[in-house]
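PROTEIN FOLDING TASK:
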Amino acid sequence: MSARPWIETAVGGAVLVIAIGFGAFALDRTARGGGAGYELTASFRSLEGVGVGTDVRLAGVKIGSVTEIVLNPETYRAETTVRIDPTIQLPDDSAIAIASEGLLGGSFVEVSPGGSPFYYVAGDEIADTQSAVSLISLLLKFVSGGEG
């Protein structure tokens, strides 16, 4: 019976070490904001379904994430900050839009690259934006015959 407390202590210690490891990993990821990159801003009329941490994708591939959303009290638009992977250079005439993964899927931010030979740098604003389209408002327009 004297061997059993040692086994329980060893298992408990192993669980504690693993828990501390997961905690350190989570703290590291949140402290770095999910990774390095450069930040761009964009202003949207509606960000329905988008929040901090939402993916930013280009051609279906994740290239960044939304890091901040604030309401501009003067324009009543959602001022959004996105962090882009530092290995991705976006032409400075690129567009950014809110897209949906499907009828019942979540939303994400989609970047459509432009053709300019110049690129965005940290702190630039993406001027060409397209806000989220509400599925409910589209259904209401269809049911009412296109009015409203």
About this structure: The mean pLDDT is 84.
